[in-house]
Every structure is written in C-alpha cells, then in structure tokens.
Amino acid sequence: MTATIISGKEVASQIRSELKQEVDQLIQQGVQPGLAVILVGDDPASHSYVKGKEKASIELNFYSEVHRLSADVSEQEVLSLIDRFNRDPKIHGILVQLPLPAHISEKAVIQAIDPQKDVDGFHPVNVGNLYTGLPAFLPCTPHGVIQMLKRSGVQIAGKNAVVIGRSNIVGKPMAQLLLAENATVTICHSRTKDLTSFTKQADILVAAVGRAGTVTADMVKPGAAVVDVGVNRVDGKLVGDCLFDEVSQVAGLITPVPGGVGPMTITMLMYNTVESAKRSLVR
Ligand SMILES: Nc1nc(=O)c2c([nH]1)NC[C@@H]1CN(c3ccc(C(=O)N[C@@H](CCC(=O)O)C(=O)O)cc3)C=[N+]21
Hints:
Number of strands: 11
CATH superfamily of the largest domain: NAD(P)-binding Rossmann-like Domain
Distance between the termini: 52 Å
CATH class of the largest domain: Alpha Beta
Order of helices and strands: EHEHEHEHHHEHEHEEEEHEH
Number of domains: 2
Mean pLDDT: 97
Low-confidence stretches: none
Structural class: alpha/beta
Largest sheet: 6 strands, parallel
Shape: globular
Strand order of the largest sheet: 1-11-8-7-5-6
Bound molecules: 5,10-Methenyltetrahydrofolate
C-alpha cells in the first residue's frame, strides 16, 4: 500500500482564497486586517519563517508591520512595542516570533499581548478558553492539522489519536483540539515506555517531536493518517519526524515535509488575524 499524500500547500491555498474574499468584504466595511510581527535576533530560520508570514500578509492585502530587533534589545523595549500594538487600532494581530534570546522572558512577552490580539493563541487566557470550550484563538499549527484532516475527508470522532510531543505550542493544544473533535486521545513523550505499543493503535498519528527519524514504518497502523509536524534540518535538507519513504508504505494518508503542516501554520495565522479584524467590527 502507498499512502495518499495530503498537500498542505493545496489546502492552504484553498483556505487563503476563502480568506481573500473575507478580507475584501472587511475592507469594504472599512477594516483592513492588520498584523504586527516582532522578530528578535538573527537566527536564519526565524528570519525565513517571518518572511513567509510577511509575504502571506501582503498577498492577502493585510496591513503588515514587521519589526526586526537586534539580539541585544532589552525585554522592556519588546514589552513597550507590544503595548503600542495593543493600543493601535490598525493592528488586529500581534505575533512575537519564538524562540527569544535567553535574556527575554517568553512568559512575560506572551502575557503582555492583549488576548484579543493574540493570534498565536499562546496567551493563558486563550489557552484556558480553549480548554474550557470558550471562544479562543486556536494555536496555528494544531488548528492547521485539524483543517488538513477534515478537508481531506478524515473522520476524527471516535478514532484513536496519538500525539507524540507535549509542547505548549503543538503537542498539548493538538491533543485538546483532537479531543474537542471527539477522538480518543493519548499523549506520548520522551519518557513514554514502549512508544510503539501506543502508536500502533493510532488511527491518527501526529508526530511533533523535533527529531528526524522518530517515526518508523513498524510503529504505524496500516492505513493510519500520519501528520508530520517535525521541522528538522538534516544535511541542509528540511525533513520531518517521520521516515517518509518507509512510513508512506504503511500509512493511508501522510503529510510531507516540506509542503505539509508548515504552509498550514502560516495560513491559520492569517485566519486568526481575519477573525480578530471581524471581531473589531462588533466591538
Ligand atoms: N510565535 C511563533 N509562532 C509560530 O507560529 C512559530 C514560531 N513562533 N516560531 C517557529 C515556529 C515554526 N513555524 C513555521 C512556520 C512555517 C513553516 C513553513 O512554511 N515551512 C515550509 C518550508 C520552509 C523552508 O523551506 O524553510 C514547509 O514546511 O513547506 C515552518 C515552520 C512557525 N513557528
């Protein structure tokens, strides 16, 4: 058997064309969605992700501001900039690219963002709202994964879903979103004993570890939907957490890296920014 490859690029461009229409309508109503991105330091990968976000904003006709700050900027300067964006009515979404340099507290920065502009969905208010079923900005990567599955015709309700990874950015919210779709969810992590005994049961397997080669063919239930959230550079090449060539022989559906979850992450950021702009109409 050879898995069907779910193109994140295709699903993303479908969602972006839906968003484009919403943006046109919003602009007619006098609101142009505005996204502010703050990038600290000179990590090349972060610069490349932020370029992608800037490009997507411009394509969708957003108002876009990208602030590239030097690595030695103080935490206070970052907090002041966030405060300015919190009060700026042109800005509906604020994103601070992670990771930050060690002298700047990620916790302090995330908590400084107005929850109503927290389009990453990282603020504790949005996290709490998600966990209690209240309206919230959904974290972009896990939300993108749900959209890819749904738009590829994968039924989630009643399925066994296994998430490998328990980060605040992907693993934990991913599990919560799958639970909200009525999957039976298991979270595995670095201290899990006999990982394969869990992954073998998964109808939906999400790999969010950050280590190439974590998921091998023998760990996958035949016909499973396998979502690869990994972003790893190996010999200058971008690869996921799954051994794609062998896992795709066993899985029913699989997402590639690149061209899978990555483009969806950026698209769901655009989605959240449009949502925020829509909310500003009724505020
Ligand atoms: N506050 C914050 N929010 C984030 O959403 C966030 C972040 N910080 N820090 C880093 C991670 C990583 N991330 C990616 C986005 C797009 C691709 C993407 O589009 N990847 C392309 C390939 C890009 C390439 O070739 O480098 C693909 O998979 O096809 C990947 C990774 C967002 N992140």
